[in-house]
């Protein structure tokens, strides 16, 4: 049986107390990734060649370009595309960058990590919510102290921008295990019984205004993903019931695998035999993200499916994409794809949707960002740097970024979007500059910054990325931030101000502030609002954008802390009986009619309009760990464990507190399953966080924000 992993507090303590022991190894390596791999281990070099050989088949696929109007796979190559110099390099599996130097600091913690773990202290910290408020506070403080000292210690040793470190020994590489041949199995599901949920005890209000010492916590403390057995329990380190749920989740996830030419390339969005399939039998890029992460965090990791997915979707990006007579940008990634068996050609064929078949006919702006972020997670987990260094992969990244960084008429660094271009893929009034896309954009820019090589226009692109990262973080931190003080300022805004001296930069009319915000805004806490554009601030809370802003460090440390404060203060509204509200509050009445266009699927407190989405649990958990508040995540996980499996893993829940299974929700929704698994694995082994979190970029001069009452100095 898997052993329990230590808590966050224990992990910090272990890392803090551990002087490098005899087995510890500190080394600084200079060179390209492949050079490092080869210098470190000749065996590693052989494994590299095996990997090169493995991808060759996929590279052949990548050379095929399709000109099909219906966006189905066509294996004849287009002469126009073949003339692309990058395509010609398809056979060069790994390209070396002579002027790419990476400094890698490696601290082996394995020896010390298992020695000091005490199951007792684990219990204390993870089940802290059962204790008194005071002891909870004390425990938090001691955790926070550990965070600070770790942060200080590690910052001394690594002050450069975080990069994808190279391993010093082949066993640390997390090499892809040889995939076993698998078959896709159609599952049969039983109808599920709903259970009554006990009332959530109302939490006493904490009125202390204090900034969280976890701000500035360094992820470098987690930089080595701990693969030792005690840290690896695949999420089944809880009680009997929760272990059974974890086991069921792994089984279901496996059943959702989609195969193409014998290789697993993704997961189905849902496997609900009782509902119309619609497009839920497809592999969605955004839905695969948590599935992919689950496979990476698993013990042993299953990175093959992630690699195959990344390469297959890259191949799809290369198709010519048309909707009616209009050709979409080269870099657009599909929203989803499916594998069909072509009975004429007697072979499998791929069908992809770039938005042309989606309900709103909008291209998925988020797909390319998720793809880049997943590529970094894969690299961080496996240390297989060769994949990201492939010319085709570099090209794919550049194409995605070119779509976003090209010159235009913009006066803001944010990306202008159509309604329905992301997880909320129907009309919901998120057009303009939605926080979800801005946060993903920022995250992807920073991930790409770590992986892009300077050759072939990469250097210029990196310069553009750097400028955009700086401008975007300033813009979001300055103009999207809302807390009690800021709200009060906006409430008293003057209008009709011109020139750069204007305080009310976007000419927001204070009368447009909705009534609910005044009640919703706690004295302690704050958040990044949904959208900012001329004379328009969308004050709604969107969980995904706020969590991604924390994980990517788009939000400042103090803002990240305040966001978590808000989640605590508004638990009933944002979490309720089933985590987590995708957006708060719901649009009702006239607003619902005008903003959604009378959308019957998006009625109040349902689906995208204030519905509760279990998949979001992983994002909250990651943000909680990053801000040093694992106990909040634990509380949300407990809620999920009361119902999710018994209800058949629904896609979303309805109602103001998320009590009812969503009206049109699919059951056995894969990302509800994988989101739960990741949350469990991150809580049990917080070092998993490095796969989806970035350190603060120290080169960005943070704008001096006026501190509000929520952030006393
Ligand atoms: C729904 C969601 C979308 C998701 C898709 C597949 O349409 O709105 O975000 O990708 O289902 O699960």
Automatic annotation (TrEMBL):
<dbReference type="InterPro" id="IPR012341">
    <property type="entry name" value="6hp_glycosidase-like_sf"/>
</dbReference>
<dbReference type="GO" id="GO:0005987">
    <property type="term" value="P:sucrose catabolic process"/>
</dbReference>
<dbReference type="InterPro" id="IPR024746">
    <property type="entry name" value="Glyco_hydro_100"/>
</dbReference>
<protein>
    <recommendedName>
        <fullName>Alkaline/neutral invertase</fullName>
        <ecNumber>3.2.1.26</ecNumber>
    </recommendedName>
</protein>
<feature type="compositionally biased region" description="Low complexity">
    <location>
        <begin position="67"/>
        <end position="77"/>
    </location>
</feature>
<dbReference type="GO" id="GO:0033926">
    <property type="term" value="F:endo-alpha-N-acetylgalactosaminidase activity"/>
</dbReference>
<feature type="compositionally biased region" description="Basic and acidic residues">
    <location>
        <begin position="164"/>
        <end position="175"/>
    </location>
</feature>
<dbReference type="Pfam" id="PF12899">
    <property type="entry name" value="Glyco_hydro_100"/>
</dbReference>
<comment type="function">
    <text>Invertase that cleaves sucrose into glucose and fructose.</text>
</comment>
<keyword id="KW-0378">Hydrolase</keyword>
<comment type="similarity">
    <text>Belongs to the glycosyl hydrolase 100 family.</text>
</comment>
<keyword id="KW-0119">Carbohydrate metabolism</keyword>
<dbReference type="GO" id="GO:0004575">
    <property type="term" value="F:sucrose alpha-glucosidase activity"/>
</dbReference>
<feature type="compositionally biased region" description="Low complexity">
    <location>
        <begin position="147"/>
        <end position="156"/>
    </location>
</feature>
<feature type="compositionally biased region" description="Basic and acidic residues">
    <location>
        <begin position="120"/>
        <end position="146"/>
    </location>
</feature>
<dbReference type="InterPro" id="IPR008928">
    <property type="entry name" value="6-hairpin_glycosidase_sf"/>
</dbReference>
<feature type="region of interest" description="Disordered">
    <location>
        <begin position="111"/>
        <end position="187"/>
    </location>
</feature>
<feature type="compositionally biased region" description="Basic and acidic residues">
    <location>
        <begin position="78"/>
        <end position="94"/>
    </location>
</feature>
<feature type="region of interest" description="Disordered">
    <location>
        <begin position="66"/>
        <end position="94"/>
    </location>
</feature>
<keyword id="KW-0326">Glycosidase</keyword>
């Amino acid at each position: 049986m898997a052993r329990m992993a230590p808590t966050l507090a224990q992990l910090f303590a272990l890392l803090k107390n551990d002087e490098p022991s005899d087995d510890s190894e500190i080394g600084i390596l200079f060179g390209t990734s492949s050079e490092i791999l080869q210098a470190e281990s000749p065996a590693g070099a052989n494994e590299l060649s095996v990997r090169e050989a493995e991808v060759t088949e996929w590279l052949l696929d990548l050379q095929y370009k399709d000109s099909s109007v219906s966006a189905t796979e066509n294996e004849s190559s287009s002469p126009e595309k073949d003339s692309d110099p990058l395509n010609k390099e398809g056979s060069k599996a790994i390209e070396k960058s002579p002027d790419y130097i990476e400094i890698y600091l490696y601290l082996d913690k394995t020896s010390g990590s298992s020695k000091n773990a005490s199951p007792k202290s684990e219990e204390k910290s993870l089940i802290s919510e059962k204790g008194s408020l005071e002891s909870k506070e004390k425990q938090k403080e001691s955790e926070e102290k550990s965070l600070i000292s770790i942060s200080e210690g590690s910052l001394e040793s690594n002050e450069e921008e975080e990069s994808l470190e190279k391993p010093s020994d082949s066993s640390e590489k997390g090499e892809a295990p040889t995939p076993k041949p698998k078959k896709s199995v159609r599952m049969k599901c039983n109808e599920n019984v709903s259970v009554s949920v006990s009332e959530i005890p109302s939490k006493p209000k904490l009125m202390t205004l204090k900034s969280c010492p976890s701000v500035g916590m360094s992820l470098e403390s987690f930089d080595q993903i701990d693969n030792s057995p005690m840290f690896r329990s695949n999420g089944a380190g809880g009680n009997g019931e929760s272990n059974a749920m974890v086991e069921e989740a792994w089984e279901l996830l496996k059943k959702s695998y989609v195969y193409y030419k014998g290789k697993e390339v993704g997961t189905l969005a849902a496997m609900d035999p009782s509902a119309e399939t619609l497009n839920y039998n497809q592999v969605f890029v955004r839905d695969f993200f948590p599935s992919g992460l689950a496979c990476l965090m698993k013990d042993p990791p299953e990175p093959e499916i992630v690699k195959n997915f990344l390469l297959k979707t890259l191949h799809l990006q290369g198709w010519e994409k048309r909707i009616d007579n209009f050709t979409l940008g080269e870099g657009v990634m599909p929203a989803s794809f499916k594998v069909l068996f072509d009975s004429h050609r007697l072979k499998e064929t791929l069908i992809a949707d770039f938005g042309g078949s989606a309900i709103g006919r909008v291209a998925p702006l988020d797909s390319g960002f998720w793809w880049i972020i997943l590529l970094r997670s894969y690299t961080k987990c496996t240390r297989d740097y060769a994949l990201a260094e492939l010319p085709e992969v570099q090209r794919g990244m550049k194409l995605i970024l070119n779509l976003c960084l090209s010159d235009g008429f913009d006066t803001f660094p944010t990306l202008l979007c159509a309604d329905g271009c992301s997880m909320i893929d129907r009309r919901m009034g998120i057009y303009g500059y939605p926080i979800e896309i801005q946060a993903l954009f920022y995250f992807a820019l920073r991930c790409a910054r770590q992986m892009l090589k300077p050759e072939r226009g990469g250097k210029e692109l990196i310069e553009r990325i750097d400028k955009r990262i700086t401008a975007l973080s300033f813009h979001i931190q300055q103009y999207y931030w809302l807390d009690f003080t800021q709200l009060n300022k906006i409430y008293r805004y003057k209008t009709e101000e011109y020139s750069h001296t204007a305080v009310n930069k976007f000419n927001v009319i204070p009368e447009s502030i909705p009534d609910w915000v005044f009640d919703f805004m706690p004295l302690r806490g704050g958040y990044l609002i949904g959208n900012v554009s001329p004379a328009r601030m969308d004050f709604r809370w969107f969980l995904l954008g706020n969590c991604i802003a924390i994980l990517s460090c788009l939000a400042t440390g103090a803002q990240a802390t305040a966001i978590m404060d808000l989640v605590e203060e508004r638990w009933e509204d944002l979490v309720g009986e089933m985590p987590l509200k995708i957006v708060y509050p719901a649009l009702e009445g006239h607003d619902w009619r005008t903003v959604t266009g009378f959308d019957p699927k998006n009625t109040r407190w349902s689906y995208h309009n204030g519905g509760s989405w279990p998949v979001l649990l992983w994002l909250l958990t990651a943000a909680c760990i990053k801000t040093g508040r694992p106990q909040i995540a634990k509380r949300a996980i407990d809620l999920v464990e009361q119902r999710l499996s018994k209800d058949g893993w629904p896609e979303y829940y309805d109602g103001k507190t998320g009590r009812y299974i969503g009206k049109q929700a699919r059951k056995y929704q894969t990302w509800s399953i994988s989101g739960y698994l990741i949350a469990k694995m991150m809580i049990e082994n917080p070092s998993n966080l490095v796969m989806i979190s970035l350190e603060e970029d120290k080169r960005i001069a943070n704008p001096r924000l006026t501190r509000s009452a929520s952030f006393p100095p």
